[in-house]
Amino acid sequence: MAMLFRAAASASRIFFFAGMGLIAAIFVIVVYDVTMRNAGFTPPYWGVNTVEYALFWIAMLTIPDLVRTRGHVSVEVVLAALAPAARARLSSAVSIFAALLCFFMTWRAGLAFTGAWMSGNYEVRAFDMPEWIIYLPMPISFFLAGLMFLRFPLTGESYHAGPAESSGGL
């Protein structure tokens, strides 16, 4: 099991860096688009759509690593009020629920991806793109996020570091 979690963590890290690369690409595209507009030239027709798709991919690619590093926002008001043993149990329950939700989303996104793949449909906007490309990161990212959430209760760690005061919260 530890090997699976290490592999998922490595894949999550790779996805995170890919998302960072997309952020850099968006920066270049936006600067180019604005420069062309301000210089009186026609901006690229593909710029806006490319940025829209990239923003979605960034969200999907970074989810697993945010879970791995406990980077997602969580409200710990209830946890902070509990005794340590109850806090640990509730934190494990929340992590298991989040993992199950991610695995459910993996299944649903996998169905959407498979349907788009089988239909052969294209997303027709500024440029034509197979519809399955839109769904590609979803099942993979949700699966990795589910594994990262599941890692916490199975390894005895807590997604929630402790009372909110100890992590710079309330």
TrEMBL record:
Protein's cellular compartments: Cell inner membrane
Tripartite ATP-independent periplasmic transporters DctQ component domain residues: 26-150
Topology in the lipid bilayer: Multi-pass membrane protein
Keywords tagged on the record: Cell inner membrane, Cell membrane, Membrane, Transmembrane, Transmembrane helix, Transport
Pfam families: DctQ
Protein's GO biological process: C4-dicarboxylate transport
Any one GO cellular component localisation term in the record: plasma membrane
Keyword Zinc recorded: no
Chain segments annotated as transmembrane: 12-32, 44-63, 96-120, 132-150
Molecular-function GO term, any one: transmembrane transporter activity
Role this protein plays: Part of the tripartite ATP-independent periplasmic (TRAP) transport system.
PANTHER family assigned: 2,3-DIKETO-L-GULONATE TRAP TRANSPORTER SMALL PERMEASE PROTEIN YIAM (PTHR35011:SF2)
Family label: Belongs to the TRAP transporter small permease family.
Name this polypeptide is given: TRAP transporter small permease protein
Species this protein is from: Microbaculum marinum
